[in-house]
Amino acid sequence: MKAGVKAGGPAGSATSALTWRGRRLHRHGVPHRILSGGLHYFRVHPDLWRDRIRRLADLGLNTIDTYVAWNFHQPREDAAPRFDGWRDVERFIRLVGEEGLDVVVRPGPYICAEWSNGGLPSWLTARDVALRSSDPAFTAAVGRWFDELIPRLAALQAGAGGPVVAVQIENEFGSYGDDQAYLRWNREALTSRGIGELLFTADGPTELMLDGGTLPGTLAAVTLGSKPAAARRLQAARRPDEPFVVAEFWNGWFDHWGERHHVRGVDSAVRTLEGIIADGGSVSVYMAHGGTNFGLWAGANEHEGRLQPTVTSYDSDAPVAEDGSLTPKFHAMRAALGARGPVRVSERPPVLPPARVPLVRRAGLLPGLRAVSAPATVEPRPASFERLGLDAGMVLHTAHPRVPEGEHRLTLIDVRDRAMVYCDGTFLGVAAPGLPELSVRGTGAVVRLEILVESLGRVNYGPGLGRHKGLLGPVLIDRRIVQGWESTPIALQEWTPADLATATAAGEAAAEDLAAGDSTAGDSAAAGPAAGELAPAGGGFAEAIVRVGTPADTFLALPGSGRGLVWVNGFLLGRYWDIGPQVTLYCPAPLLREGDNVVTVLELERPGAVLELRDRPELGPPEEYVEEFD
């Protein structure tokens, strides 16, 4: 592309803000480097957007980049995409501009980002469609989404007086496929809807990935965690006229449940950063501020058939920590970036003092879930999440097989991802991939078989993208298939405060029924103790009342509890799990209010007796990690 020529815009559009010539990037004709940082509006409470933007400005950045998560805006196909409140990406972009920074937007439609399903809606991936391809069934759906999104972004471009100076085409496509027609379609989908600023692709610095993910005539950026000199040589050999742009520099990494907390040393990160920006190189620090996978939006990876669900925190060992604290990496990177002037923001936002609050048992697991769940679907086989239109949460499957006398093998052929199994209210155990078999004892009578299946996160990267959730195969007693199932969706991510109140009140209703002598009020083992009584084992709902003077950040821990979810004043904070590495859940100040705050806990395994408020995060034992390409 010659200097001053449009970067992929439609005929007659204004010249883009960013151009290049002689391997140098220019902004309105002046030599320029993109010094950017990743900050995702969907991972930060909107009341904190401006604060986090200012922290990245103080880091020495001149640009912020964000993905746009399609499924966050349109979780259901039968509802129009939302752009209000937390989903007001236009407001986020305008705030960045008000703070004097440029914006790079990465609209996907696939974003990876360790986000559920890589940002693709599960209603789309439920279909028999070739994802991320020129399959008309896929591009038609993306086109309808882009019809809603792209004009909003186009109105905020630099050419229209806004802060958007560049837009990415797809995302690291070369590590997924080689459908060049799809990439060309994606580029045309952007330009035909009004994008006239710089367009670019981004891929890992290998021949294979760059072959699959780049387009002639479009800037080819790279993504990396180390070895910038080798990436620079490769890029120069392939694109001798283009500037060196690193669209993602992985200065930290994310975590999976059951593994260690990934960190990256300050010296290692800074040396790589200096190698990138040397000789006019541009960079986006991924993540500059990671934020939090609130709710059930955390994604997952698959390795050799094993699911690796991502934790709730997306701290990513970033220079600006999950709670906004400025880390040693912040100050070292700020120096490397040549930032001048004072740091305007506080080193650390205010926090509540530590406290311990009792957890009060409210309802047993199954009675509480049944009280809120939607109507069941009745079919010969268990219905998958996709069949039920359920993106995340749980499904309760119920059947009534006859079990012959004696011990029998109960096999769940394909569980995605974890199933808790009950027979006549007695907990039989947990089934999961690699552990599909349990034992059931029969008397020759018909039993009530209940299987509570939980999704631990949709795969966000690789060939497992779009994989379905639920009981995907048959349930067998010995070799006989169990047929005739009621499948009840439990949409935990969509629960309202009223739904939570209904779930927790189920314990009081069960206690009243039992006191009246009604032995059918819930299954004996599943109903749990009466309200106010803590069970020594077994899942259920519990509450804690946290009294707050002036709201401030806090970090919630549940010592003695096993695995479950936490709501704060009706907002689903996220998942906890005693296998670690993450111990505390970050609760930002805007979720709290002066006076009493209700913390609701859905414990699936082993309820503890106390909720702790801590003044510092605990993300687990650290492990040094640097992602490298060979």
Mean pLDDT level: 92
Q: Biggest sheet, open or closed, and with what strands and sense?
A: 8 strands, parallel, barrel
The total strand number stands at 36
- Find the CATH superfamily of the largest domain: Glycosidases
How many domains, in number, for the residues?
A: 3
Share in helix? 10-25%
Structural class: alpha+beta
By oligomeric state, this entry counts as single chain
Strand content: 25-35%
Identify the CATH architecture of the largest domain.
Alpha-Beta Barrel
Radius of gyration: 26 Å
Give the N-to-C terminal Cα separation: 30 Å
How is the largest sheet built, in terms of strand order? Answer: 4-5-6-7-8-9-10-12
CATH class label of the largest domain: Alpha Beta
Provide a count of the helices: 13
- Global morphology: globular
Active site: 172, 248
GO molecular function: beta-galactosidase activity
Protein name: Beta-galactosidase
Family: Belongs to the glycosyl hydrolase 35 family.
Strand and helix map with partners:
Layout lengths: L17 E4 L2 E4 L2 E2 L3 E5 L9 H11 L3 E5 L2 H4 L15 H10 L3 E5 L15 H4 L10 H19 L9 E5 L11 H12 L6 E6 L3 H7 L5 E6 L3 H11 L6 E6 L10 E3 L2 H12 L4 E8 L10 E4 L2 E4 L18 H9 L18 E4 L1 E5 H8 L4 E3 L14 E6 L6 E7 L2 E2 L1 E6 L2 E6 L5 E6 L6 E6 L15 E2 L3 E3 L2 E2 L3 E6 L6 H19 L8 H4 L12 E9 L5 E4 L5 E6 L2 E7 L7 E3 L7 E9 L6 E5 L7 E3 L6
Parallel strand pairs: 4-5, 4-12, 5-6, 6-7, 7-8, 8-9, 9-10, 10-12, 11-36
Antiparallel strand pairs: 1-2, 2-3, 13-14, 15-35, 16-29, 17-28, 18-24, 18-28, 19-23, 19-26, 20-25, 21-22, 21-24, 26-27, 29-34, 30-33, 30-35, 31-32, 31-34
Helix pairs in contact: 5-6, 9-10, 11-12
